[in-house]
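Data deposition worksheet. Section B asks for the primary sequence of the deposited chain exactly as it was used as input, without tags or linkers unless they were present during the calculation. Section C holds the resulting structure in token form. Section D is free text for depositor observations; keep each observation to a single sentence. Incomplete worksheets are returned to the depositor.
Section A, Depositor: J.P.
Section B:
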Amino acid sequence: MNPMPALSPHLKQLRLSGILDSLEARNRQAIDSKLAYTEFLARLIEDEVARREQKQFTCRLRRAAFRSNKTLDQFDFDRLPQLNRALVHELATGRYLDERAPVLIVGPCGTGKSHLAQALGHCAVRQGVDVTFGSSARAAARDGGGAGPRGIGDARACRARGAAFAGSAVR
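Section C:
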């Protein structure tokens, strides 16, 4: 008797249907390696946890609405020698999020402000933080904020749990 078909409705009822994806392979591995029942169960649960973490990461990334997939690895620090690399890498750790410290990225057009904002947002997503990327004008309108598009310019904003990154400053 094959118990696999009988497991499916129970796993779905317990919201563990992801286990079905690896059950057959893990069962075969357990038989071949003569794993203990608890070791077999531990590997199935590890697979389920990894699947859920990946799903959460994918959902956070999609909800962040980044314009493109920009990361710090792709950023050309050599193009901006005056940029404080150590500070950028410190921001990538996400400590400012716990401190609820705002981050403002300003500079002329085309210097990589949006790239940095998206890259730092991507780092926050990898740390399990919900992030939203969009224009500062839209963020100000959403938050009932003040100056409107004229006072904000063509800035972009990336919000992560109370911290905000923004783009071009208007002179």
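Section D:
The chain has eight helices and three strands.
The mean pLDDT is 82.
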